[in-house]
Structures are given as C-alpha cells and as structure tokens.
Write a structure and sequence with these properties.
Strand content: 35-45%
Structural class: mainly beta
Low-confidence stretches: none
Radius of gyration: 18 Å
Distance between the termini: 40 Å
Number of helices: 2
Largest sheet: 7 strands, antiparallel
Order of helices and strands: HEEEEEEHEEEEEEE
C-alpha cells in the first residue's frame, strides 16, 4: 500500500502538479441567524491541495425554442491522498486512524478561476472501492458543483 501511495503521489504532486485552493468556513467566527444560516461567512486561510482532478460540464442548451439559454454546470471530482491531507493539516490522525477531516460540505474549491461548492466531502467512503485490498483507505474523492459569483466571492 505504501508503494502504491508513494507512486501515485509522485505522479500527482510531482509530474501532473494538479492543485486547487480550498476555502473553509470558520464556524467559530461565522455568526448564524435564528435558522442556522449566515449571510456573511468568515473563512479560514486558503489551503492549496494537490489531487487528481476530473472536471465535467453539461452542455449549454435552450429551454424552449426562442427562449432563454440554460447555462451548463460544471462538476469537479478531486481524488486526494489521505497522507497529503495529514501533511497540510486538514486530516487528524490518532492511534493510526484518520478521525477528523477539516473539509466539509458547503466549503468552496477554486480551480483555474472557477469556484465549486463541496457537495460530498468523501470522508464517509468506507467501501472497498476507496481502499487497497478492502483493508486500508488511502484516498478520498471530493465532489463539488460549480457556483456563480453571487454564491461565493473570493476575488
């Protein structure tokens, strides 16, 4: 498992150098209203993360003939090695177990100027697909959808 992880990380971080920026909501500094929502969110320092990225986009099409155009929406899947998340301080490891991930649903990712909202943080993927030999997980797959600037303004 260590060999596979090492080779995969060398390919991802050394050769491909695909990375994105993570913007995490600071839940201690963000003040929610009565309904648990907040119009003014406070974010922690951005973190650069390396991973294998898959970006897909649905096509642009018309809703009705002569009607308004429907804009395509992008989806992003980032496959990230757990060792890398430990190194950048996003994954807490205790007694050899990965116990807490500081990347949540609702946080934002930026890749090549496009912003995405995390819809699945990948931490609960406990099946054999995400492990080697059904024994040890070595990566997570984070899924996010593209958002407009009115939803998240990091620029």
């Amino acid at each position: 498992v260590a060999f596979l992880s090492s080779v995969g990380r060398e390919l991802t971080e050394g050769w491909l150098k695909e990375s994105f920026i993570l913007y995490r909501i600071d839940m201690k500094k963000t003040v929610p209203d009565f309904y648990g929502e907040s119009q003014k969110k406070v974010y922690k320092e951005p973190v650069q993360i390396y991973g294998r990225l898959d970006i897909e986009s649905t096509g642009v099409g018309q809703q009705v003939p002569g009607g308004i155009m429907k804009r395509g929406v992008g989806t992003m899947t980032a496959h990230i090695y757990l060792e890398h998340l430990v190194e950048v301080g996003l994954l807490l490891k205790r007694d050899g177990q990965h116990v807490q991930l500081d990347m949540k649903v609702g946080d934002f990712l930026m890749f090549k100027g496009q912003y995405f909202e995390i819809k699945d943080d990948g931490f609960s993927q406990l099946n054999n697909e995400y492990s080697y030999g059904g024994d040890r997980r070595f990566y997570v797959s984070v899924k996010a959808i593209e958002v407009d600037e009115d939803k998240f303004k990091a620029r």
